[in-house]
Structure formats: structure tokens, C-alpha cells
Amino acid sequence: MMKKLLTIIMWMCAVNASAQEDYAKLDLLVGDIPKIISDKQQRIAVLSEGEKGYGLNARLFREYMSFKYDSAFKYIDENLRLAQEGGDRERIYDCRLKYAHILSVAGLFKEAGDVMGAICPDSASDGIKTVYYSQKADLFLYSMEFNDKMPHYNSLQDSMLYYRKKTMETASESSYDYAFAAAAIRAAQDDYKSAKAILSDYLSAGVPDTRTYSVVVSTLAFYYEMDGDIDNAERYYRLSAENDLENAIIENSSLRHLADILFAKGDSQRAFKYLMACSECANFFGSRLRSVQNAAIFNKITDAYETQRKQIHQTTLIFLAVLLIVAAALVWLSIKLSKKNKSYIAANRKIVEFNAELDSAMEQLKKTNASLKESNGIKDEYIGRFMTLSSQIIENISQKYSAINKLAREKRMAELYAEIKNEDIITINTKSFYKNFDEAFLNLFPTFCAEVNALLKPDCQIEIKDGSLNTEFRVLALLRLGFADNKQIASILRSSIATIYTYRSKIRAKALDKERFEELVKRVG
Q1: Is the model's pLDDT at 389 over the cut of 70?
Q2: How open is the CA angle 88-92-95, to the nearest 5 degrees?
Q3: Within its chain, how far is the Cα of 522 from the centroid?
Q4: Are 424 and 396 in contact (CB under 8 A)?
Q5: 43-51: long-range contacts (C-beta < 8 A, 24 or more apart)?
Q6: Is the pTM of this model over 0.90?
Q7: Rounded distance, CA 42 to CA 260, Å?
Q8: CB contact at 8 A, 183 and 198
Q9: Right CATH number for 445-524 from 3.30.70, 2.40.10, 2.60.120, 1.10.10?
Q10: Torsion sign over Cα 316, 322, 324, 330
Q11: Residue pair 216/254 in contact by the 8 Å Cβ criterion
């Protein structure tokens, strides 16, 4: 899922980057409109320095025709006057057609119609006829644009198509007028595929001038738009708009159509910027038609912004209400959590204290268990050994008693006295007791002797011979087993209390120091 999301994000970034790159050139041109106008004015100023007359006026009209209405009007009006003074009908017709064109693009349709009403096409050359029919069709086309969605729109379209067909009757099949008229007729029949093909073929054959290129490409974009191919419509409108601005064609419509498409696609910021540029161009040129068309889109954008503003306002109010509810809930939750936190802190403190007590108890229990385990081991070891030892001693005493009884019955008094006086049995049993005691202790604590010697001075080490403990070690062994009383130790080792005390004192003296001796006593005590 994460991989798919990253792929979508990367694709969106790539599309956005591609769009920025596509519009980089047009964005620069739109930003340079004041400079484009200034440069064009400087070029015209240089051109105006030529010899005055009909030819210069015609050149200046061509420069102003798509640049500035009032200047174009001035020069074509002057040429019409000159043509009328000269009585040249071809020139008069040519000037009237150009006059009608400039009036049409300015939105002065009645005036344009009146100018063309003075032309009799039947008495004109084929070239003038073609321009006349084409201009009449354009006049109705501009009227259609101005009266879009009006009741008489269809009648205007019928008139436009009539003159497109008349154009095709006189125009050369390779000409712009013929291609444009044929494409318009196919488009009116909703055959946009054929209309696009006609204009595309015309473009591939080579366009005679930049103004014609802009018109053809813009019309091709319009046919793509009508055919539902918005992406290609956007591309061709952009190419036409770039060509318009590169060549200072201020009377244009492609940029307005492009702004409309961009607004519909959600790129409101760029759409608004382009529409402002369109308004700037229309105001500079002086076209009522373009200003009205721009105003229509401005109204659309304004309405959309107003709707969006209301939606944002409503959403903001809802968001603020939700935010207040959430904030109140958070405050309440914070208070509850604060109380809970205090309870948790107190409980945790008690738990820590309880755990400390539990650890202490567990440690004590471990020591107790170890002590019990050791005690059980001692009991097991010594009980087994001393049960056997006690049985042997009883058997020895029994044998001794039987021998004494026999001597007494036989009245062998000297031998009886000698037998009673003999202490061998005590010596044997004592040795047996010590032997079993030493073996049992060393089995239970095999490292005891080494640990004791490690705590004594090097020259005071206690040796073990033949696996038997000496008296000093036996005193320590009994201390280790828990016999702390000197009297009790003296009784077990068959020694006097003074002797046991002496041994314990000697052991203290052999310790490395008092602290180590206390440690020794702790370990063995």
C-alpha cells in the first residue's frame, strides 16, 4: 500500500513538473507583455519614418491591424480616402474590406456591415470576391461570438456558413480561405475529425504569416475542444497564445480560451493571471468584443470564487466548532488524566516500595532457603554417619561389657581390674568420631580449609594431614556448623573451655587484620 501511494505521489509530482515546464515559455511571455508592446511600438516608429503615402499607410495598417485598433483605423481610413480620390475601385474595395475587418474585431458589427454594403462583389476580381466572402463570414462569426447563446445565434451561424461556401467557390484549394471555410463547414456538421484534418494538412503545408498561424492553430484547438479532447485543445491554445505574444499580436483570443480551460481544470491562479493579461491586451487594442468575452469569464471566475469563499467560510465555521469541541474535550481529558496520573504516581510509589520490600523478602528467602538447604545437607550427612558411628560404639561397648562380665563370673580379678582400667575403647571410638566428623565436614565444605587459609597470615597457615582436621580446624568447623558456645565446643572435642578459648584467640591472632578477621568470623560463624 505504501509503495502504491509513493508511486501515485511521484506521478503527481512528475505531472506537475511537466505542466510547469510546458507553461514556462508562455508564463515568461505573459509577464513581458509591457516590453512586447514597447518593442513593437519602437519598430513601428522606425517604420513610420518612411515616405508618406498609400504604401506606407498599408504597411502601418498591417502592423496595427492586430496591435492597436485606433491606429489601424486611422491608417486604413486615410488609405480609403486616397483610394477614393484616385478612383481605383480595386483599392477602394480592398480598403473597405480591411476597414470592415478592423471594425468587426472591435465589435462594431453594424458599422462593418455598412462599409461592406458599399461593395458589389459581382463587379470585383476573384481575389476581391474571395476576401469579401471570407470577410462577410468572419463578420457573422464575430457576431456569433458576441451573441453566444442568444435567440438569433443560429441564424447568424447559417449566414456564416453561407459565406464560407461562397468563399470555397472562388478561393484556391490550397489557400487559407478555402481550408478555413471547408473546416468550418465540416465542424458545423459535427464532423470535427475532418475539420481537424483539413487544418492540420494546411499547417503541414506551411503557413504564410504569423497572424494566419495563430488563427489556424487557435481554430484547431477550438475543434479539439468541441470534440472533447481537452488535452490537445489546451496544447494548441497554448501554442497559439505563445505565437500571438511572440509576434505582438495583441488582438487575440487563444489566451482567453486557455484561461477558461485552466480554470476548469483547477489551475485558478494561472487562469486568473492569463485572463488579466487578456484584459490588458483588449484594453490596449481597444476591442469591445474581446472585453465583453473577457468579462464573461471574469464573471465565471468571480462566481466560482464567491462559491468557493462561501464553502471555505462554512467549512471554517464547522472546523472552528469541531475545534472548540475537541479543545473542550482535550481540557476535560487533560484534567481527568491529571487526576489519574496523580493516582498512578501514588500507586507506582507504593508498588516501588512493595517491590523493594518484596525484593528484600525474596533475598532473605533465598538466604533462608540456602541455609535450609545447607542445614538439610548437614543433617543428611551427619545423621547417616553418626547413626553408623553410634551403632559401632554401642557394639564396642557391648563387647567390652561382655568381656568384663565374663572375667567377673570367673572371678579373675586381676584381669578384670586391668580390663576396666584399659581406655583403648575410648581412644578407638574417639578417633572414629573425629574421622567421621572430618570426612563429613569436608564433604559438605570441600573449599572451607582453603578459604580459611586465604584469610590468615602467610606464616600462620593451618595444614591438613591425611584428610584429617587438626583441633584448630575442628573448632572453626564447629563454628561453621553453628556451635558458637565454648562450653558446647569443649564438650564435643573433649577439651577444657580454657583450651577452646585459647584456640579461638590464636585464630584471631593469625588473621591478617581485625576487619578481615571479622569477615572470617562472619563467614565461619
Answers
A1: no
A2: 140
A3: 67
A4: no
A5: none
A6: no
A7: 32
A8: yes
A9: 1.10.10
A10: negative
A11: no
